[in-house]
Amino acid sequence: MTTLIKNGTVVTATDMTPADVLIDGERIRAIGLGLGDSVTAETVIDATGRYVMPGGIDVHTHMELPFGGTFASDDFGTGTAAAAWGGTTTIVDFAVQSYGETLSQGLDTWLQKAGPKSHIDYGLHLIVREINDSTLREMDTMIDRGVTSFKLFMAYPGVFMVDDASIFRAMSRTADNGGLIMLHAENGGAIDVLVQRYLAEGKTAPVNHGLTRPASMEGEATHRAIALAELAGVPVYIVHLSAREALTAVREGRSRGVPAYAETCPQYLYLSLDDLARPGFEGAKYVCSPPLRTADHQADLWRGLVTDDLQVVSTDHCPFDYKDQKILGKDDFSAIPNGLPGVEDRYTLLWDGGVAAGHISPTRFVELIATAPARMFGLHPRKGTLAPGADADVVVFNPDADRTISAGTHHMRVDYSAYEGRKVRGNPEVVMQRGNILVQDGKFHGQPGAGRFLERSRFGPGPG
Ligand SMILES: [Zn+2]
């Protein structure tokens, strides 16, 4: 099966050039100007006026995550279909070690959830809840099974949080085994004291979720994480960075030579504490951790994406229905399940607010949405770029299409959109994975179970 994508502008992290793309089976065979004049293919896609870009790679999703007595509303079936609709062809989700279980048991549970359902290729990180001699040893085994990154929490005491000694021990292990430690960096101890104090004072509305998780406590934890990585002599990756104070800690670490990396998410670029303060209970739709910040943080995050102090934009996709899940925290903001839907919207939101608005170039867009995450998480050069030999994960993107984001038209299994009514420019018209068309002409052609588990390599050189 061969496919030719003709007359488009091919964009990679380094180049933007008119070219045709020839796909043979699951891989790209050739890219070149006028290629279509000399070869024939069984399927031809006309990309006149379109950008031809790599499929998106979202390295932070939580399909079916158990949290706060319920489960994220998208499973690997609905969530990966929605991802494909939005131009994302690979996710890296998080398997979770349960207390008293081995890391292998956590990984096997998530492989069983994802395998039969996933429409797109997927990798897994592992959330480690207990650091001891046996879990440290098991990290090596996980790496052999293609799980090369481990997430630890500095927040959620009693649920996920591990102490500094555990973080340092895990980091020291990755100095030997080549794994990458990812951190949720918020000072969970101080935050929990604030939460209890607010609740005791009768402050129960959703906005208090944001007010009890101050930016300074994200800055503090980020600084601590980077200092520990420096001591262990290893790279470190800060997930879902939301605050200027945390970005400053990353920038300072990088400027003294620490391989510190960080991602941010669309919600921190486009939404703010004002959304969390919406009247009534509506703010619950915007409860995620770290929380949405005041709007003045957004310009700093955009600058971080330009200067490469932030290298990745992921979603932290973790949807909960407003009507029957977010409502669990009706009288207590701390009981609102944490998380926002986003896996479907990332590609176009970053294009619209980033490229169309003039913050970043199309090549930088590709780097943030696909190439850098692929490099950092051991998927490059097979994924994250358009090149001969790479998987044919391709998006044909119409930069002139206007549309409006809405829960009425999105494909995520959740009853609201965090961006309801937002007008965006740009649409992933054709989405392919390994040469197979997943989306075309507004129709979905994916198959549950067609997505494959990706055994990832060890952390490679950083981006750029
Ligand atoms: Zn997360």
Structure description:
By secondary structure, the chain is an alpha/beta fold. It is 31% helix and 23% strand. It has 14 helices and 19 strands. The protein has helices spanning 35-38, 76-85, 103-114, 133-144, 164-177, 188-200, 207-211, 215-232, 244-255, 266-270, 273-276, 297-307, 346-356, 362-376, and strands spanning 2-11, 16-24, 27-32, 43-46, 51-54, 56-61, 66-67, 70-71, 88-96, 121-127, 149-153, 180-184, 236-238, 260-264, 312-313, 394-404, 423-433, 436-440, 443-444. The strands form three sheets. Strands 1, 2, 3, 4, 5, 16, 17, 18 and 19 form a nine-stranded mixed sheet that branches. An eight-stranded parallel sheet has the order 6-9-10-11-12-13-14-15. Strands 7-8 form a two-stranded antiparallel ribbon. Strand 11, helix 5 (164-177) and strand 12 (180-184) form a beta-alpha-beta unit. Helix 8 (215-232) runs parallel beside helix 9 (244-255). The model has no long low-confidence stretch (mean pLDDT 97).
